[in-house]
């Protein structure tokens, strides 16, 4: 696809000249003669590159204001500023705001084309990088509006300007690595490496080499994660699985901020941020003597606990809509017409949490190509039923078999209404409409069963 360039200059001769130079090189060119025209063109469609004259039609707004506007919309768009009244202060200000280059009039055809070519090459590389990142796990967003996940998002924001160590806990599949990547991406270390050490997958004898690296007699070096993550972030995933002896070595590194490679003689200084994650309760492991308490306190400076999906069912529709769009794009197929009001989505116990939901959406997306909504819903139900969908219902029957009829009915009604309220984000009116009750009658029923507000 041909690159589109927007040329903004109030001097008709210069505007015509630049446009012709670019058109001869087969670029798609739009132009604007003043601030208002430029604003209209930018808002209509952001260009791949903009060439902007700083002084425009002697109005209150100038090219610097347009540069700021473009940067607010998309910081990756390259902008070349031009001026016949250049000074160092103005050039520095334009570059500081985000301009790719500052060119003084008069300029040669060769110079303007060189700047345009280089700027577009960088822009294309950034777009390719973004496209690749969208296909990686860490590019997924932290989706949800419930109180628990909102608290997590606020904590991530607060961590953006500090270097504190973080311990992320939660069940398998709740998004611990995703949160760690978001912390790194928002931090001052974001341009430096993010390295993952999966402690659960390593053999015990390989821990030291993976952490510290090794020096060989022939002079070759195997670099460990402590060096590869230097100036960046190291995520120790499932930190609970690290053997006690290695825990002591990690603690020493955290205290001294240096280490030696295996067979090495010199200390290597390290500057890394440690984020740890665990699906196990580390305090229980400490009480059993399987995890060092002093290491726990070093790692657990800022704790983040991720809730299971069953405690945030109000986010299920948001997650499904988000994943089906992402996964359809990734697989090159249409979005699946998944019915987010399907009761089975809210009664299932989701042992794999967000990861299991994402996998479910991907399976439905692939299997539902060219299927109608009714068939897609059947596909969804079939997948869930094979994943022990009816476990909750079976448990309910077993739990209530010894109850008197009245108590068994009340227990069923209570679980049913709690589930319906969760599905409707606690909204009494929506719930009443869905189950076919008057709002006032539902209020009375909830009160009689002792059900309070659902968050």
Could you walk me through the main structural features you see in this protein, from its secondary elements to its overall organization?
The chain has 455 residues and is an alpha/beta fold. It has 4 domains: 4-131, 3-Layer(aba) Sandwich (Rossmann fold), CATH 3.40.50; 139-307, P-loop containing nucleotide triphosphate hydrolases (Rossmann fold, 3-Layer(aba) Sandwich); 310-386, Helicase, Ruva Protein, domain 3; 391-448, Arc Repressor Mutant, subunit A (Orthogonal Bundle), CATH 1.10.10. 49% of the residues lie in helices and 12% in strands. The protein is built from 20 helices and 14 strands. The protein has helices spanning 12-24, 35-44, 63-73, 88-97, 109-134, 147-158, 176-186, 207-212, 225-228, 244-256, 282-287, 293-299, 316-331, 344-347, 353-367, 373-386, 391-400, 405-423, 428-435, 439-448, and strands at residues 4-8, 28-32, 49-53, 79-83, 101-104, 166-169, 194-198, 214-215, 221-222, 233-237, 258-259, 268-269, 273-278, 302-305. The strands form 4 sheets. The protein has a 5-stranded parallel sheet with strand order 2-1-3-4-5, sandwiched between helices. It has a 5-stranded parallel sheet with strand order 7-10-13-6-14. Strand 1 (4-8), helix 1 and strand 2 form a beta-alpha-beta unit. Helix 2 runs parallel beside helix 3 (63-73) and helix 18 (405-423) packs across helix 19. The longest helix is centred in the N-terminal third of the chain and has 26 residues, at 109-134. Mean pLDDT is 85; it is low at 388-394.
């Amino acid at each position: 696809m041909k690159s589109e360039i927007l040329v903004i200059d109030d001097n008709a001769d210069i505007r015509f000249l630049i446009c012709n130079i670019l058109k001869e090189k087969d670029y798609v060119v739009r132009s604007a003669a003043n601030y208002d025209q430029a604003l209209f063109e930018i808002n209509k469609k952001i260009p791949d590159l903009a060439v902007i004259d700083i002084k425009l039609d002697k109005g209150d707004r100038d090219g610097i204001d347009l540069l700021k506007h473009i940067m607010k919309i998309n910081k990756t768009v390259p902008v070349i500023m031009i001026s016949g009244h250049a000074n160092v202060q103005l050039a520095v200000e334009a570059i500081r705001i985000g301009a790719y280059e500052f060119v003084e009039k008069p300029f040669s055809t060769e110079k303007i084309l060189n700047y345009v070519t280089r700027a577009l090459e960088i822009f294309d590389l950034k777009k390719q990088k973004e496209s690749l990142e969208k296909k990686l796990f860490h590019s997924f967003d932290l989706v949800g509006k419930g109180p628990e996940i909102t608290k997590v998002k606020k904590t991530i924001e607060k961590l953006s300007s500090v270097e504190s160590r973080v311990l992320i806990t939660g069940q398998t599949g709740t998004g611990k690595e995703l949160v760690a990547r978001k912390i790194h991406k928002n931090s001052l270390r974001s341009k430096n490496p993010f390295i993952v050490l999966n402690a659960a997958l390593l053999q015990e004898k390989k821990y030291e080499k993976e952490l510290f690296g090794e020096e060989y007699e022939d002079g070759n070096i195997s670099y460990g994660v402590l060096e590869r993550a230097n100036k960046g972030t190291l995520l120790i995933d499932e930190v609970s699985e690290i053997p006690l002896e290695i825990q002591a070595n990690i603690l020493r590194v955290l205290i001294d901020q240096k280490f030696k490679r295996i067979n090495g003689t010199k200390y290597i200084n390290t500057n890394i941020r440690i984020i740890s994650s665990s699906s196990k309760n580390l305090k229980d492991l400490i009480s059993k003597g399987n995890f060092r308490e002093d290491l726990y306190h070093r790692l657990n400076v800022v704790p983040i606990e991720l809730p299971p999906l069953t405690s945030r069912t109000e986010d299920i529709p948001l997650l499904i809509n988000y994943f089906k769009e992402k996964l359809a794009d990734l697989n090159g197929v249409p979005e699946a017409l998944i019915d987010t009001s399907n009761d089975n989505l809210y009664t299932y116990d989701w042992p794999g949490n967000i990861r299991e939901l994402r996998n479910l959406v991907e399976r439905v997306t692939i299997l539902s190509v060219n299927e109608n909504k009714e068939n897609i819903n059947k596909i969804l139900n079939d997948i869930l039923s094979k994943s022990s969908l009816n476990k909750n219902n079976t448990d309910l029957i077993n739990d209530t078999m010894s109850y008197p009829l009245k108590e068994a009915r009340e227990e069923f009604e209570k679980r049913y209404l709690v589930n319906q309220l969760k599905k409707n984000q606690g909204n009494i009116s929506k719930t009443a409409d869905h189950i076919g009750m008057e709002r006032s009658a539902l209020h009375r029923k909830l009160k009689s069963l002792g059900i309070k507000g659902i968050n």
